[in-house]
Each structure stands twice: as structure tokens, then as C-alpha cells.
Amino acid sequence: MIQGLGVDTVEIERIGRAMARWPGFLERVLTDRERIEVAHAVHRVAARWAAKEAFFKALDLPARGLVLSWREVEVTNTLTGRPFFNLSGKVGNLVKRRGWRLHLSLSHDRERATAVVLVEKIPRSRKGIAWGYKSKRRSGSWN
Which of 27, 54, 57, 92 could staple 115 via S-S, CB 3.0–4.6 A? Predict the structure, then answer.
């Protein structure tokens, strides 16, 4: 059953301006691993920004009384390039406790980056895999 849906789009140029204007922008928004993976590629930073915004919308976190750090939500990829979330902190506990599975799709062109996040409730019989399949890329990662 669908529990939430979030969509966000951002101008890549806007993210580029923010990166140039504020030296700490990447450290505030991205995890250490994300900063290594994007290697300052503005379109990749913009896609992760859009993914996190879409994630916040899908979970409707303020209504749940959660204040969230951008760095509690990490966007990474499987070996085949499929994007997924690594979650930590309060939001990670919430998603696991509720038995939600997250679906993420990213896209970008020269001007815009777009993300769609779908939150699905896993049936009780499958709660042990609430975050999806076990990623072969990192032993501790769940999709």
C-alpha cells in the first residue's frame, strides 16, 4: 500500500550558484560518501538535493514531529547505477519501525534535476526486508 509520494525538481544552475556562494554548502547537504561519489559534479549534487526534498515531502516529516538533518538521508547507487537511500538517525528508525520500503528515481538533463520518491508499506509477512533488497555494493546498506 502506498504511504507517501514526493516529487521535486531543481534548476542545476541554482545548485551551482549555491555551491559557489557558500563554501560549506556541500558539507551541510551531503554526507562524506555522497561528496566523494558526486565529485563536485553539479548535476549529481542537484539530483541528490531533489531526492532529499522529494523524500521529505513523501514522508511528511514535519507532520510527524521530526526535524531532520540533510545528512541523515544519503543517496547512493547500486553497482548497476540504481539510486537508493541509506538512512540514519530518527528518520532511519521511523522508516524501519513503520515497515516502509522506499523507491527512488532520479533524472536530469542540462537544466533540471528531478526526483520521485514512493513510500510503500510492506505487508507484515515481509517486515524483515522493510527497506528492500540487500545491496551487494555495501554490506550494511538496505534499499
Answer: 54
How many domains are there within the chain? Answer: 1
Q: Which helix (H) or strand (E) holds 113?
A: strand 112-121
143 residues of the chain, pLDDT tens digit each: 999 999 999 999 999 999 999 989 999 999 999 999 998 899 999 999 999 999 999 998 766 666 778 899 999 999 999 999 999 998 899 899 999 999 999 999 999 999 999 999 987 765 554 444 444 545 445 45
Query: Would 140 be classed as within a structural domain?
Result: no
Full residue range of the structural domain in which residue 13 is found: 2-129
Question: What are the Cα distances from residue 23, in Å, to 44, 56, 99?
Answer: 17, 24, 38
